[in-house]
Amino acid sequence: MSQSQVHTVQIAGVTRHLPLFEIKPGVRIAILNILGDVELVAAAARALAAPLAARQPELLVTAEAKAIPIAYALAAELKLPYVVLRKSYKPYMGDALQSETLSITTGTPQMLFLDEKDRALVGGRKVAIVDDVISTGSTLQGMRLILQKAGAEIIAEAAILTEGDRAQWHNIIALGHLPVWVDS
Questions:
Q1: What is each CA distance from 7 to 32, 60, 136, 149, in whole angstroms?
Q2: Is the pTM of this model over 0.85?
Q3: Domain ranges of the chain
Q4: Which of 37, 94, 137, 144 sits 20 to 30 Å CA-CA off 170?
Q5: What is the assigned CATH class of domain 34-176?
Q6: Residue 27 pairs with which residues in a beta bridge?
Q7: What is the mean pLDDT of the chain?
């Protein structure tokens, strides 16, 4: 890839060259894909652990699928359980809670489901929401709605990176920020 097709970032001492992807005509974002990136996930989890621990969560919650590695690594660092909100309903999930989101990378509505088993784990607990990248906030809002329905107290929101209008993300614990490129 040429320099114009990537955006280089430093995350917790690890350098990555993120490919730029056009999400709609004239608008590009850098794509962080942590699936399989053990070095980056471990470094990011170590860096996010202390600020999250200071908030004293009892449980971590993330959405399927790309953020699962960071949620797992943080759970291991903090010695906490974690819950994954699923993107499709399976019959074994029982009386699941649901919420709709709109991902910037897919551009189509998606559902999030909190399994009945995990619903019991979340209720009445102090939870931290964990994501890989928070961009539009749609997935974050969907997670918030489900957790509120389940009776959880959201005490922190964390991501490896935020993206876009930084003013929206002042309460997010993050290790860096990505711009959005708009052609003029």
A1: 10, 29, 19, 38
A2: yes
A3: 34-176
A4: 37
A5: alpha beta
A6: 24, 182
A7: 92
